[in-house]
Amino acid sequence: MIELQLLLGGLQNGALYALTAAGFALIFGATKVFHVAHGATFTLAGYVFIGAWNAGWHPALGVLAAMAAAVAFGIAMERLVYRPIGRHEGGFFTVFVAAFGVSIVVQNVIAMIAGRGFANVDSPLATATEVMPDLFLAPVFWISIVAAVAMFLALTIFLSRHPAGVALRALAQNADLLRAYGLSSGKLSVLAFALGSVLAAPAAILTAMTSGINEAIGNHVMLISMAATIVGGVGSLRGAALAGLLLGVAESVVLVFLDTQWAEGASFMVLFAFILFRPSGMFGAAVAR
Amino acid sequence: MIAYLSNIATLAAIFGLLAATLNFMVGQAGIFSVAHAVFMGLGAYSGAQVALLLVPDPFLACLAAAVVAGGLSLCLALPALRVRGEYFVAASLGLQMMAVTLFTEAKGLTGGMGGLVGIPQPRIFGVVVPVLPLALVALVVFLLLMAAMQRGSFGRTLGAIRDAESAAEALGKNVAVAKALAVAFSAAGAGVAGALFALHLSFVNVESFTLEQSVLIMAMLIVGGTGTLLGPILGAVLLLSLPAALSFITFIPPTDIGSVQQIIYGGAMALLMIFRPAGLLGDQKRGRSEA
């Protein structure tokens, strides 16, 4: 039964990874920016929710505040960091270092304000009940799955039906042609960052409810998002989400054989295997080296 | 005061060596690794084990460190041959995280979290020597080697691969071998630095080889300027003197000094990339197109 328990726990984590990774993949696909500070978005959203909770706000208000913080941070990164670098044609390493620098700043500012170590909210939603013999599930499990599926569906519908969504996909394919049709790639980049960042907020809130978050969790989230985007195949949201789910399950199921400290290692073995044997990922077109 | 200054100078030489060898990988070969602390760690553990189990001969320790780090650099060279750019950064990040887990768990070799303690002071022919001159010699040797390679055919091959991999391959350059050699050389240098680090502190544990350390080394390189010979050294000196400078500012509560330091590193990295992407000593025109 422990296997089933771990599998379901992995699904819950994986659903949240899938959301975060889809956000990262959306940003990377549309704007070609490797948004390393996506982990910082996650941390920020989680701590805003915890702050709102501790201040006695209504949870719905806390969720809104967390989402607003995530969107604001994403847009600020685009306007203040990525765009100035893009203007002088900085390469990807310039972008990477700048975003990493910002992540370090966010991590330490949060540590100074909220203190180091794990913080979480005590919600009745996170109390597990025995649903089957030896199988414990909390309402958070269902909320995570439903939230992930709902947000992913909404995103898919937006990208395929709404004019701005179609324009975003066009931006991903050919930015020059998009500009030739008179659309603003700058405005669409802001939209991509806003959408991608908002996807990290529910994942951060649900993680804060279950296992808790600390100021350094952004690193882990960033690595998982990156790994999922690459494993899923760059440019494929579906791939990134599926890979996020897969990594969550892998991290959890590996505990059947190994101790917890190897959980993160499992993700990277998957990433390494893909990089060595199938760098284009599960759904990606073959990429040039 | 003398002891304090010589400690800073030794660390500056060691980190200068780390930043300079990372620079060789990043600036010369265009392999953007964020796993440099892994090879520093491999070198530190092998150097420490040589000193603990065999003889505290610094040359032997450095040799062992270079061989182990250079040999295991294949873990980094393999993904570097398959993918470039963002993909490789992600792979090296993964390697860094894996290595920290391995360092923590392989208690027999590394002492785990407790680390290796009581590493004897280095002795040459039975005479105890401080690490400072050794570190300076290592730094100068590696800088000379790199300067020679930069001018020679190997350096030019690497530069060609960095700027246009397909073109270099078309001209008959063996890209795979050149990349693997560059990574091995750089990792060996990091290993030597790690061994000297272990001998200097006479104690190592996994805390010194985490992602934060890799980022610190990268920050030194970035602040100084990639692709320059002396930039990384300047960056190392600047970033190492930062904690000392901060301790003079009295209004920061001591518990927050670590955070303030990190915020300054991070902020400096981001601002430099936005306003001066080639670093303090870098050629600004060149940095615009390729850094």
TrEMBL record, chain A:
InterPro entries: ABC_transp_permease, BCAA_transport_permease. The chain crosses the membrane at residues 6-29, 36-55, 61-81, 93-115, 135-159, 188-210, 241-262, 268-288. Pfam families: BPD_transp_2. GO terms for cellular component: plasma membrane. Its main location: membrane. It is found in: Cell membrane. The keyword Secreted does not apply. It comes from the Bacteria. Keywords: Amino-acid transport, Cell membrane, Membrane, Transmembrane, Transmembrane helix, Transport. One of its GO terms (biological process) is amino acid transport. GO terms for molecular function: transmembrane transporter activity. This is Branched-chain amino acid ABC transporter permease. It is a multi-pass membrane protein. Belongs to the binding-protein-dependent transport system permease family. LivHM subfamily. It comes from Rhodovarius crocodyli.
Automatic annotation (TrEMBL), chain B:
The keyword Membrane applies. Keywords: Cell membrane, Membrane, Transmembrane, Transmembrane helix. It is a multi-pass membrane protein. The keyword RNA-binding does not apply. It is found in: Cell membrane. CDD domains: TM_PBP1_LivM_like. One of its GO terms (molecular function) is branched-chain amino acid transmembrane transporter activity. The chain crosses the membrane at residues 53-80, 124-148, 180-203, 215-242, 263-282. InterPro entries: ABC_transp_permease, LivM-like. GO terms for cellular component: plasma membrane. PANTHER family: HIGH-AFFINITY BRANCHED-CHAIN AMINO ACID TRANSPORT SYSTEM PERMEASE, HIGH-AFFINITY BRANCHED-CHAIN AMINO ACID TRANSPORT SYSTEM PERMEASE PROTEIN LIVM. This is Branched-chain amino acid ABC transporter permease.
